[in-house]
Design goal:
This protein is of the alpha/beta class and about 350 residues long. It has 2 domains: about 200 residues, Quinone Oxidoreductase, Chain A, domain 1; about 130 residues, 3-Layer(aba) Sandwich (Rossmann fold). Helices cover about 25% and strands about 25% of the residues. It contains 11 helices and 18 strands. Strands 3, 5, 6, 9, 10, 17 and 18 form a 7-stranded mixed sheet that branches. A 6-stranded parallel sheet has the order 13-12-11-14-15-16, with helices on both faces. Helix 4 packs across helix 10. The longest helix is centred in the middle third of the chain and has 12 residues.
Length: about 350
C-alpha cells in the first residue's frame, strides 16, 4: 500500500510503498477513507532526533492524525465496513487522568497515531485500543477526520471556558482558521453570547462572517482595547498572548491553544485578569471527540474540507502552510481525482 512516511530523523516525509499491516490479537485494521492535514504536522516533521526519542517516537512512521475510515477486520461491536473515526493520542485507560475522563492529560499521550507511530496518511492503519474507535453513523468517513482533532481541541477549549461565559457575555477567538472556525461555531451554540472573530486574513474573516459571528476584527491591537469574558487564542505569539490577556475582563478566562511559542513577559499584577483564569492544554479528550461527532451528525456544526488525492499531498501542505485554503485539507488515499 501507499503511505506518507517519515523515514529518518531530519529528512522530509515522502510517499512510499509498504505492506498492508496485519492485525494481531486485539488489533483492528482500518481502511482509510480520509485523513486531515494539520499545522502541527510541520512541527512533527521537524522533530529533532533527541527530542523525538525522549518522547518514545520511533522511525520510520506514517504521518496523519485526523483519520477516519471503515472497519476492515473483525472488531467487537462492529461489522466490517462500518464507518469510524479514530482517536489519535495514546492513553493508557488506567491512570487517574483516564479514569476521570481527562485522557488528554495521560502521560502516554506524548506518542500518538501520526506522531511517533503509524498514522492515517496511508491506505490502511492499525488500531490496538477499542477506545480509539468512534462510530460515525451516517457521517462520511472521507471528511470526518478533522472532527477528532481540530474539532475536539476547539470543543475542549470552549467547554473549559464556558463557566466564565454567562448569558449575555462576550467571547473572542484569535485565529479563525481550522481550529478557530470550530471554536466560533461552538460558541455560537451558546445562548445569548456575542462572538468576535479576530484574524489578519480577510479570507478567514469572511468565513467567520459566513458562520454567523457578531463582529470581526482585522487587527490584534483592536482586541486589546476590548473587554471580553472569554478570549481563546489559536495563534499563540507574543502579540496575541499580550492582547488576549489584556482584553479579558475581571472574572474572565484566557485560553492559549495556539503553539506559536509566544510568551507573556509582564508582572502578574499588570497583566492578569483579576479573579480570572489563564489555561492551556494539549488536544481534546475521547469524550470531546464523541460530542463533536454527535454535533456534526445533528447538523449543528459545519466541517468544511477540500479533498486531495494522496498524489497531491505536497501541494496540499503548501496551500496549508500559506494559509491559502479556506477549509481543512483532507487526503483521500482511495482516489486519484483532483481536489474537490
Amino acid at each position: 500500500m501507499r503511505a506518507y512516511r517519515m523515514t529518518s530523523w531530519g529528512d522530509e516525509p515522502r510517499v512510499v510503498e509498504v505492506p498492508i499491516p496485519e492485525p494481531g490479537p486485539g488489533q483492528v485494521l482500518i481502511r482509510v477513507a480520509g485523513c486531515g492535514l494539520c499545522h502541527s504536522d510541520f512541527t512533527m516533521r521537524r522533530m529533532p532526533e533527541p527530542a523525538g526519542r525522549a518522547l518514545g517516537w520511533a522511525m520510520p512512521y506514517t504521518m496523519g492524525h485526523e483519520t477516519a475510515g471503515w472497519i476492515a477486520s473483525p472488531a467487537h461491536g462492529f461489522t466490517i465496513g462500518d464507518p469510524v473515526a479514530l482517536v489519535s493520542p495514546n492513553s493508557c485507560g488506567r491512570c487517574d487522568f483516564c479514569r476521570k475522563a481527562r485522557d488528554n492529560c495521560c502521560p502516554a499521550g506524548v506518542l500518538g497515531r501520526g506522531y511517533g507511530r503509524d498514522g492515517g496518511l496511508a491506505e490502511y492503519v492499525l488500531v490496538d485500543d477499542p477506545r480509539a474507535l468512534l462510530p460515525l453513523g451516517d457521517l462520511d468517513p472521507r471528511t470526518a477526520g478533522p472532527l477528532t482533532d481540530a474539532g475536539a481541541t476547539a470543543y475542549h477549549a470552549v467547554r473549559r471556558a464556558l463557566p466564565r461565559l454567562l448569558s449575555g457575555g462576550a467571547a473572542a477567538v484569535i485565529g479563525t482558521g481550522g481550529l478557530g472556525s470550530f471554536a466560533l461555531q461552538f460558541l455560537l451554540l451558546a445562548e445569548s453570547v456575542s462572538v468576535v472573530a479576530v484574524d489578519t486574513n480577510p479570507q478567514a474573516l469572511n468565513r467567520a462572517t459566513d458562520l454567523g459571528v457578531h463582529e470581526r476584527l482585522s487587527s490584534i491591537d483592536k482586541l486589546a482595547q476590548r473587554s471580553q469574558d472569554v478570549v481563546l487564542d489559536f495563534v499563540g505569539t507574543d502579540e496575541t498572548i499580550a492582547a488576549g490577556v489584556a482584553a479579558v475582563r475581571p472574572g474572565g478566562s484566557y485560553g492559549l491553544i495556539g503553539a506559536a511559542g509566544g510568551r507573556l513577559n509582564k508582572p502578574w499584577f499588570h497583566a492578569l485578569p483579576r479573579d480570572g483564569e489563564i489555561f492551556t492544554f494539549q488536544g481534546g479528550t475521547i469524550a470531546d471527540a464523541r460530542d463533536v461527532i454527535a454535533l456534526a451528525a445533528q447538523g449543528r456544526i459545519r466541517n468544511d474540507v477540500t479533498i486531495f488525492p494522496l498524489t497531491q499531498i505536497e501541494e496540499a501542505y503548501t496551500l496549508l502552510a500559506s494559509a491559502a485554503l479556506p477549509t481543512r485539507a483532507i487526503i483521500d488515499p482511495t482516489t486519484t481525482q483532483p481536489p474537490t
